[in-house]
């Protein structure tokens, strides 16, 4: 191989390497801009309801215990009131308690809010029937999913009348809850207690946790749904009742 050819190959290799480096720099730049833009979008939207983020300590409740004969029960509070009002054989009260958590979970965003929340391409989230951009806070969607799974245990009481709320919807809720749980990854150490009745330790999850004040979030959603901060649908459209809660067999 001649010196001229070797020099030409070296020059070609140098230009190839330089081009690759330039492409890597461009990709890093694009990534940085994308991350920056996404961060700005998220922060901008979250800045709007940031007053909702109020932390409080909450003791979780309702861990089962066992008598010496193996009988399993959930201890009542010292004042004699039950530790949970969301589980058990379905009743009007239990249904009402769940509805109080996630009723009216969908509300409309202004176009500016939608643009800030979802960025480029936000237009695809337009709901022509309702005449606006429908949104729900993730916590409301998650609570709805948990309630949907609860109802699935009692198909005779909660018959499925909605074709889009069948098995696929149930599986979506289970998978979504899995992702939410892993995303949050609560690291609170949970102890266990030895019970003679079962001759083994059993988990006791009644521990303190640092939580967001859900009541403030609930009040915000209520106000966005039908309060002073409600965004009205465009004229000529109808806000469907299906966005509230419609499956109420006990009410």
Automatic annotation (TrEMBL):
GO terms for biological process: mycotoxin biosynthetic process. Pfam families: UstYa. Pathway: Mycotoxin biosynthesis. It comes from the Eukaryota. InterPro entries: UstYa-like. Belongs to the ustYa family. This is Cyclochlorotine biosynthesis protein O.
């Amino acid at each position: 191989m001649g010196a001229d050819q070797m020099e030409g190959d070296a020059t070609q290799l140098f230009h190839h390497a330089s081009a690759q480096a330039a492409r890597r720099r461009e990709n890093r730049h694009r990534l940085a801009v994308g991350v920056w833009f996404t961060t700005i979008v998220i922060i901008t939207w979250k800045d709007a309801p940031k007053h909702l983020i109020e932390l409080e300590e909450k003791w979780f409740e309702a861990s089962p215990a066992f008598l010496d004969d193996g009988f399993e029960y959930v201890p009542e509070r010292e004042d004699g009131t039950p530790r949970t009002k969301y589980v058990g054989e379905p009743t009007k009260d239990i249904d009402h308690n769940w509805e109080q958590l996630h009723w009216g979970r969908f509300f409309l965003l202004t176009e500016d809010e939608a643009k800030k929340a979802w960025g480029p391409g936000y237009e695809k989230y337009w709901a022509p029937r309702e005449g606006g951009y429908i949104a729900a806070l993730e916590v409301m969607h998650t609570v709805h999913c948990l309630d949907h799974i609860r109802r699935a245990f009692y198909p005779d009481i909660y018959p499925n009348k909605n074709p889009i709320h069948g098995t696929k919807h149930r599986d979506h809720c289970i998978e979504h809850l899995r992702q939410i749980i892993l995303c949050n990854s609560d690291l609170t150490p949970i102890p266990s207690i030895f019970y003679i009745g079962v001759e083994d330790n059993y988990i006791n999850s009644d521990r303190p946790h640092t939580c967001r004040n859900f009541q403030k979030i609930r009040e915000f959603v209520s106000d966005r749904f039908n309060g002073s901060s409600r965004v009205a649908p465009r004229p000529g459209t109808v806000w469907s009742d299906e966005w509230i809660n419609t499956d109420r067999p006990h009410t």
